[in-house]
């Protein structure tokens, strides 16, 4: 099989490529240049896709004896990921840029080009597994190492994309084993730290970065009962669950800290309240997609049992879900979750299988009626 290995410059992608070579596949390595100004991306252990990562990817490919290329996806990355991030915040939502990058860059733009060039699959270092059901349909499942499982950020993959996705680390029991294998293979990235945070915000100051790109105007901060508490510099800079940076001079009557409960950009208002009001038990999702052939209940609109995960490393919560005639995904949670913001992604599972995903458009709590504020 002729495969294209997406080389991030980290240890996972390097070992994944090495295993593909060892399995006898014809492997070509490619690193994605996501910015024409490398200084605008994070560097060191906190970044990804920087110049130093490109050099690390090249060294890994050289060690493996496979061809190496750098593909410039900076323009598409800016449009599909960075601009989307800005527009989502401007609309009062909290997006997941890594999810968008997987969806629109690594498994759309990259895979499309790979197939056009005659490759059979794209290899990545993600911890997830692709299997087949009795009919030969592809399914996406959690990896063997649940602590490193990355099926959540791959929940956006479609059935057609799963046909060409190759995850050699699927059955690896731990990240420590991957690092040990990289050492044995003589790969220089064996002990390279994992990447974290948003790669296109160099200093980690999301609010300051957004302020340069969104026309923010001062507005009011109110509590969950509608009481005016002061002024904010721009609602777009806040996210649900935020505690720091509220700059409220008057303490709550009970002395407890306040958290952002809602961001309302149309009213330019930020609603705050006690932590217990962050708990939600009903989620409505839009932009729904299914990772593989949808289960029958999706087609019929019947309710089905599942688990719901709303963050990459969060614990899944049992729920019942159904798809409305308008295509909205409704999930009723058996256990309330805190700090869930519109714009986040909910991924649905049955057992280890990823059913699909949706962008959260609304999150509700039985303990608080926001329409009264």
From TrEMBL:
The active site is at residues 101, 199. It catalyses: S-sulfanyl-L-cysteinyl-[protein] + uridine(34) in tRNA + AH2 + ATP = 2-thiouridine(34) in tRNA + L-cysteinyl-[protein] + A + AMP + diphosphate + H(+). Residues 286-360 form the tRNA-specific 2-thiouridylase MnmA-like C-terminal domain. It is an enzyme of class 2 (transferase). Belongs to the MnmA/TRMU family. Residues 209-273 form the tRNA-specific 2-thiouridylase MnmA-like central domain. GO terms for biological process: tRNA wobble position uridine thiolation. Keywords: ATP-binding, Cytoplasm, Disulfide bond, Nucleotide-binding, RNA-binding, Transferase, tRNA processing, tRNA-binding. This is tRNA-specific 2-thiouridylase MnmA. InterPro entries: MnmA-like, MnmA-like_C, MnmA-like_central, MnmA-like_central_sf, Rossmann-like_a/b/a_fold. Residues 148-150 are annotated as: Interaction with tRNA. One of its GO terms (cellular component) is cytoplasm. Catalyzes the 2-thiolation of uridine at the wobble position (U34) of tRNA, leading to the formation of s(2)U34. The record marks 126, 344 as: Interaction with tRNA. ATP binds at residues 6-13, 32, 125.
């Amino acid at each position: 099989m002729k495969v294209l290995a997406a080389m991030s410059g980290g240890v996972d992608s390097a070992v994944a490529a090495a295993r593909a070579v060892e399995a006898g596949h014809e492997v070509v390595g490619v690193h994605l240049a996501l910015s024409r100004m490398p200084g605008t991306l994070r560097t060191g252990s906190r970044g990804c896709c920087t110049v130093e990562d490109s050099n690390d990817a090249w060294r890994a490919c050289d060690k493996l004896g496979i061809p190496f290329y750098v593909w410039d996806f900076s323009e598409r990355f800016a449009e599909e990921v960075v601009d989307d991030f800005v527009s989502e915040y401007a609309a009062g939502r909290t997006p997941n840029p890594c999810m968008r990058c997987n969806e629109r860059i690594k498994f759309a733009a990259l895979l499309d080009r790979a197939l056009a060039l005659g490759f059979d699959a794209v290899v990545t270092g993600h911890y997830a597994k692709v299997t087949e059901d009795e009919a030969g349909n592809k399914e996406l499942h959690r990896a063997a190492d649940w602590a490193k499982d990355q099926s959540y950020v791959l929940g956006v993959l479609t059935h057609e994309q799963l046909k060409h996705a190759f995850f050699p680390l699927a059955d690896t029991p731990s990240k420590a084993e991957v690092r040990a294998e990289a050492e044995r293979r003589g790969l220089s990235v064996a002990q390279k730290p994992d990447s974290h945070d948003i790669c296109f915000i160099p200093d980690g100051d999301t609010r300051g970065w957004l302020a340069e790109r969104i026309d923010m105007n001062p507005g009011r901060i109110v509590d969950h009962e509608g009481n005016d508490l002061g002024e904010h510099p721009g609602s777009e800079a806040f996210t649900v669950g935020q505690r720091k940076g509220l700059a409220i001079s008057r303490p709550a009557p009970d002395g407890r800290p306040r958290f952002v409960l809602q961001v309302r950009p149309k009213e330019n208002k930020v609603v705050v309240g006690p932590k217990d009001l962050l708990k939600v038990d009903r989620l409505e999702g839009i932009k729904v997609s299914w990772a593989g052939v949808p289960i029958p209940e999706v087609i019929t609109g019947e309710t089905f049992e599942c688990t719901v995960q709303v963050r990459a490393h969060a614990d899944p919560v049992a729920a019942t879900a159904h798809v409305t005639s308008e295509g909205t995904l409704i999930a009723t949670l058996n256990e309330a979750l805190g700090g869930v913001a519109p714009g986040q992604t909910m991924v649905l599972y049955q057992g280890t299988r990823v059913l699909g995903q949706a962008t959260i458009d609304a999150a509700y709590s039985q303990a608080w009626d926001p329409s009264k504020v």
